[in-house]
Amino acid sequence: MTRSDTGRPRHPGGPNAGRPGFAWALPATLFFALFAILPLIGVAVMSFTSWSGLGNPAFNGLDNWVKLAGDKVMMQSLWLSALLTLLGVAIQTPLSILLGTWAAGHQKNRAILSAIYFVPLLLSSAAVSVLWRALLDPNFGLPGQFSSFFGGDGNVLGTQAGAIAVLTFVGAWQFTPLHTLLYQGAARSVPPVLYQAADIDGAGTVRKFFSITLPQLRNTIVTSVILMVVGGLTTFDTVLILTKGGPGTDTTITAFYMYRKAFQSFDFGVASAIALVLVIIATTISLVLVRVTGYDKMHSVQEGI
Amino acid sequence: MSNKSTWLIRAIAGTAVLALGVTLTACSTASGAASNRPENVIHVAVYGDAGNTVEEAMVKKFNATSDVKVILDRIPGANYQQKLQTIISTASAPDIFFNWGGGSIQPFVKADLLLPLTGMIKDDPKLESSFLPSVFNAAAIDGVPYGIPMRGTQPVILFNNKQVLTDAGIESPKTWDDLLASVKILKDKGITPIALGGADQWPTLMWYEYMFDRVAGPDLLTKAIGGDSSAWDSKDSRAALTKLKELIDAGAFGSNFDSVSFVDGGSPALLRTGKAAFELMGSWEYSTQQSADKDWTAANLGYATFPTVTGGKGDAADLVGNTNNYYSVIKATRYPDTARDFLKLMYSDEFVQAQLAIGNLTTTTSTEKFLDQAADPTYAAFQFTMVQDAPAFQLSWDQAYPQSASADMHTAVAQFFSGKLDVDGFIAAMQAL
Fold first, then answer.
1. Domain limits at A69?
2. Which CATH code of 3.30.2020.10, 3.60.130.10, 3.40.190.10, 2.10.10.90 fits the domain covering B154-321+402-431?
């Protein structure tokens, strides 16, 4: 699937071919400017002020940033965010690729099972978190019944490893269906002719999966991973409800720390600085991912077919 | 627009949504001068819960005779303080609002938003003299009164499961050594000695509040809150922490308290089902248990004061908890006289009787003669005597300190219990508040 630009007419689906003009993007751009760019500028300004929500913000130069740079909880929160995001990607990606390609088959039982499997995605994160919190109560929930499986005393949310495992699990439980759906759609659009050719060549199921399905899913993998990374970095509700950033500050990820600074400690200046850090990190990671994977070049995986 | 920048934009959008939450509140700064406040009405903001029936009745009664009408705004209870802080400096701030006194109103006083009640009290001295002094003074900032007590007092009490104590052959501990001995007996029987909702963190704080009072006396906290952070590093402070550590290490709270929550009903259920013998909790434990199992509560829920510590400086009758709830008035109000007349209802007999009937224990001097009308007269009398006789009633630390300190305080409190902070670490954390 290499591309050569010489001696060949532009592919009909290539760049600039019949693309709508900027006017089409105007409503979205306006909306985006009003509800994202504008607040973002406000946050950037506020990160140089000191404000408790009472009276007017007062400029305090780089104070917030200096404070943040020396803040142990902040540094720890960045590592925790990275860890939770990586765990999310590492667990959800293989699961959803396998489930997605499996669900792409047209058999009736697969349709029913994928519908059931889709249910967690329909629930709100808050409801999901409350549900799991109740299920994980050490005395009256699952750990009370199956104590040996949960490490004796069922102190699942009371240890750092346990709390991170729960957050990862609940995240995967809720969001794997979304990514499964992406992969299901993508796997269905793989031209059957590829599999037919492979059959003639005598390729087995495993070989077909690795040599046809997976390469064909490349763009979907990039999409899904970017969604997971940005989603992982901005995870908030599950942490708020399931662990409240605890035990101690052991699961205080950056987004939650921002909330804590803003709405519990009323230090909106520092909270704005944290928000800005998050914006910068998430943007950088997305850009790097897009670049590294060559996604921005928009090469079709079906070129040459 | 190329696809590259679409992705860039989507990526920013995802994160900017978060930032939005922070800025939305930033848009709401406007000073609330009387001129842009509503006419002919005053707004009263209360913490929304089951207790609102009495407030509604009071408002109805008041509106029957007043030209300026009172509108009751019930603010849903969760994050009440945060919501209040967001609106208090805006034009839509309530004229009168529910609070916990102490640190919960101190930032507002500093920002010059509250009306000193000295003038009102001059007009009607009963606004001060009708209440127990220790309670009234907890809403004074630097000696100036800013709050009139409303609703009830909520001291922290050591609750127990009578059945479990009887089976183990022990009584509610009178001294610290009794408590340690009981812990050992209960542990040997496979019962968690003390139920603790550690996941909520504030139930854990109650243990510090009583330990510091009993060992170091109430002055240490007064000093610390006043800004003298060296109080945390004193010999008494270390002694209190060491004693507490002794109790934790003895396994008094079991090993999974960090996963148990009071709010979710976890720790009250431990006590009720006999899996735990004690729980240190605010007086609302009674109504919590009652709504879960009325018969059990009547027969088996025991309560007693916190044990004494031999050699400690605190009085055995000292209390900690929510001293009371208060109404404060904002400076910008258009009708201070109406506010005053409304506040007069807070010491009326009718108000006291109505509060007692729903289980709240008012702190007016007249409360005593109505105690037999309380939802549970024995329990009400027990609490009232306790509050009346207490030489000191320490407001919960997280409410005595400004709200901005509470998150860090809760973290330190939880980390010392789970062993992540040692005595020095805890002291450093408290000094940094």
1. 60-297
2. 3.40.190.10
ipTM of the complex: 0.74
pLDDT recorded at residue B48: 83
Nearest to B406 among A136, A255, A264 (CB): A264
A181 in a structural domain: yes
CB atoms B22 and A278 under 8 Å = no
Chain segment A5-32, per-residue pLDDT in tens: 444 444 555 555 567 778 888 999 999 9
Fold of B34-153+323-394: D-Maltodextrin-Binding Protein; domain 2 (3.40.190)
Taking Cα atoms as reference points, which of B80, B226, B20 lies closest to residue A35? B20
Cis peptide bond upstream of A247, omega within 30:
yes
Cβ atoms of residues B272 and B252 within 8 Å: no
The domain ranges of chain B are 34-153+323-394, 154-321+402-431
Q: B22, A136: Cβ pair inside 8 Å?
A: no
Domain count, chain A: 1
Residue A20, φ and ψ in degrees, nearest 5: -65, 155
In a domain, A45, yes or no: no
Q: Per the domain annotation, does A42 fall within a domain?
A: no
* CA gap B171, A165 in Å, rounded: 41
Q: Which residues are B327's β-sheet partners? A: B98, B148
Contact, B186 vs B163, CB < 8 A? no
Are A46 and A272 in contact, with CB atoms under 8 Å apart?
yes
Q: For residue range A102-112, what is the model confidence (pLDDT) as tens digits?
A: 988 888 888 88
Supply the CATH number for residue A240's domain: 1.10.3720.10
Are B34-153+323-394 and B154-321+402-431 equal in CATH topology? yes
The string of pLDDT tens digits covering residues B333-379 is 999 999 999 999 999 999 999 888 887 899 998 998 899 888 788 99
| Pick from B12, B22, B258: CB nearest A272 | B22
Whether A257 is covered by a domain: the verdict is: yes
Q: State the smallest CA–CA distance between residue A202 and chain B in angstroms.
A: 39
With CA atoms as reference, report the closest residue to A171 among A105, A233, A110, A99: A233
**Cβ-Cβ contacts under 8 Å, B261 against chain A:** 133, 137
Phi, psi of A147 (to 5 degrees): -60, -35
Mean pLDDT of B221-248: 92
